[in-house]
């Protein structure tokens, strides 16, 4: 049903924003602690450059891959890159903090864009008008929840380990996408 699809896609959107809340809090804290708040402008510049080149690559992939494959691939790539940076930082490589900071800003842009693309494919114009507000309400729960959970657990598990919740959330999203990749007919496409 359209309602079920809105709830499902809203839940995936919520998980994307949940993962970002975890990863953002860690990357921002590490950057400020080790690189310094006076150098945040460097993070923004590097992020802008990374987004520019990522968009060029992304635009090529959009025309070559099915949306479900692209979204799932981006989730998996985000999981792998995030894990790679986490391992480097965990092992004491402070040089990975800036790339980790840039990564957390880049990955979320493309995953959120893919969620909106899936929405556009899933909902006809009339359905979209009815369900987008509902969808965004569900998705917002992840953003708020991630911030609350991070603030609550940081003193128990440590700043860096909060990122594991974000990476685990990305793994969960990928696992939820597997049935749609195996049987894409479970993903109804709007005809209008």
Task: Summarize the topology.
Layout: H1 2-35, H2 40-62, H3 67-90, H4 97-122, H5 125-157, H6 159-182
Key attributes of the depicted protein:
192 residues; mainly alpha
Quick structural overview:
The chain contains six helices and no strands.
Question: How would you explain this protein's 3D organization?
Answer:
By secondary structure, the protein is mainly alpha-helical. The chain has 6 helices and no strands. α1 runs antiparallel to α4. It is globular and about 50 Å long. It starts with a helix and ends in a 10-residue tail after the last helix. The model has no long low-confidence stretch (mean pLDDT 90).
What percent of residues are in strands? under 5%
The average pLDDT score comes to: 90
Shape: globular
Secondary structural class? mainly alpha
Sketch the topology as an H/E string, one letter per element.
HHHHHH
Number of strands: 0
Name the helicity range: over 70%
Q: Which stretches of 5+ consecutive residues score pLDDT under 50?
A: none
Q: Describe the biggest sheet?
A: none
How many helical elements?
A: 6
| N-to-C CA distance | 16 Å
The radius of gyration computed from the alpha-carbon positions, rounded to a whole number of angstroms, is: 17 Å
